[in-house]
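Appendix B, example 12.
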Amino acid sequence: MGQVQHRRQAGPGPVARCRRRPRRRLAGPLLRPADGGDLMSVRRHTTARLATALTATVLSSALGVAAAPPAAAANPTPTSWEAKALGLASAQSTAQGEGVKVAVLDSGVMTNHVALNGKVTTGPDFLKDGLQPGDPRWGEHGTAMASDVLKVAPKASILSVRVIDDKEDHGPGDFKGGASPTSQGIDYAVDHGADVISMSLGGEMFGDSVDEDEVDALARAAQKGIPVIASAGNEGDMFNDASYPAGYPGVIAVAATQQNGSRAEFSTVRTYNSVAAPGVAIMSAKNTGGYAPVNGTSPAAALTSGVVALMLSHNDKLTPAQVRALLTKTANHPAEGRNALVGYGQIDAAAAVRASAKPPADGTRPVKYSGKEHLATPDGTPKTQHPPLETELGDDSASARRASGCSWSSARC
């Protein structure tokens, strides 16, 4: 069975350019020290990809902006640039996420942060690596993403499901051939009342395959009428590899924009991009208290999940297809209407919430995932969920590799 290595996608600082692209090697972040010294690796993996939450010190060094002072403990929503860009004041005058549960599949959420108190239910830890709250590798990224969801939908609730590690990326070999934590997390969210599933994480395919457990779990989410949002990836200024789950059918993939509304330079450029949202210097909760600015498609996806929560709060009958249609129709479209940089453009929360009162008809019908043909081109796919336009799976499917005896570590893969 194909599996995808997932990690957080909070965004890059300055990165090293590798002379040669490693084959099937996975993310390990490189951060520039605040004193402007040499690039350093902060994980055991030596890789050419980047996806990590940045601390205020590191990010301010990378962006040339001042870090937020520790005393800035109030929710930064009223003055944040992303709130203005999304039209949150108008959107929140109509709905604030009442009655909507957002499942945040991430590295865990610290429930005692002032921005999260009383709003988080902690689900299982599917990573099962023995880490507990308080460990440096627990809850840094997830806490930030949960706060970004609630920044947009302050009256929504969060279901935290731990599926990634803050500091170390995990590959298929870590799961002893069982279902990935991400697929288990999706199923748990579906079975425990989630109205929205938010995944600010991603990874490339092993051998251009798919993780059938994950796609099957996403199909079950579609059957239950649950919209799924994922970060598009932070590869735009490097190798621009596709990222999954963003590239899976049915997922609303979110690119990142900067303050002038254009694509953030790190945001992955792929035709699976559905929409975009602010993803630069997003003030987010720290698992140690206070706030810090974060870059990446991670906060872009979390903010979009919050907007979807507002939409469902205003109209709880919306289907995933209607949510997608409303987000794309009301977004600030690029000149050509849609492109691989930002999809249909930066979302407009106020317009999306208003339009959710009278959504377009939903002509889709959920169908069970039936193998790689489910990921064919749009013309050959049952009209159920939006398929990734670039997915072309030939004989290099998971089943073909199993039949040939090919392993993930084999040079033949």
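The longest strand covers residues 251-257. The radius of gyration is 19 Å.
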